[in-house]
Amino acid sequence: MATVIKYVTKMLLLVASLLFFSCTSSTSLQEYLVEGAQRSDFISVDLPASILKIDQESLTKEQKEAYKSVKKLNVLILPLKDDNQAVYNEERMRVNEILKSGKYQDLMRINDKHMKGVIKYLGTDEEIDELILFGSSDDKGFALVRVLGKDMKPENMSTLIEALQRSNIDEASLGGLKQFF
Fold this sequence. Notes:
181 residues, 6 helices, DUF4252 domain-containing protein, DUF4252, signal
């Protein structure tokens, strides 16, 4: 009987420790976006890819493929104001910690005199499930963009950016995004 109690106790401790270590207290990027959307100091916009209104007749085959692969964009902006410098610094560090979690792979880093940024992704080198763009400027604030899609390919994303530069995007539906940039 004593061996059965010891065995059950060991099993319970094992299960409890597995549950304890599997429940992390770190925030996921999705949780951070949802949390930020509920705060008044952030600007949050969820955009379907259809809002981009790209004339598909003028696109190359690669641009069409890239455009069709993008489904949704989640945008979260924290504009820098005179009274929120401490909030900006804290939130920028939180996003950096989330992106350093090891879950995301680096695609590109941007570092110039006006802005620092990073582009990361989830998925494989052949197929991106989620593309993350994070840029910060010590005089404007930061923007976090999460691009969701299906069968997105890294090599086609640059061609999509070219097409976006020539597109007729409905600026009213972008909220404060244009003012930030």
